[in-house]
Please model this.
Amino acid sequence: MKRRSRKTKQRSKRYRLLIFTLLLAVSLLYMGRRVYRFAGAVFEEKDLEKRRIVLRAENDLLQQRINDYKKGSLIETKAREDLGMIKKGEKIYLIRQR
Model:
């Protein structure tokens, strides 16, 4: 059997170390990229959940306004407050403030 020289053994160790380092670096970069994407997806999910809650609240408010308009109570209130309208038979009392 042939014996390897000391330089050959050192080169072999260096190549193994280099290959191991390269494989480790590539796998860390790959995993880092995946973790970054996952974190971005988590933040986006939280943001979308907040937007969903806000939109649901706005939708409930608009639905309530629609129901008020259908009942007619909101229209009557608007007519009284904004336009100064009154129903038949009502009397207006004006109170002066000093």
User: Anything to note?
Assistant: Residues 49 and 86 are 46 Å apart (CA to CA). Residues 6-83 form one domain.
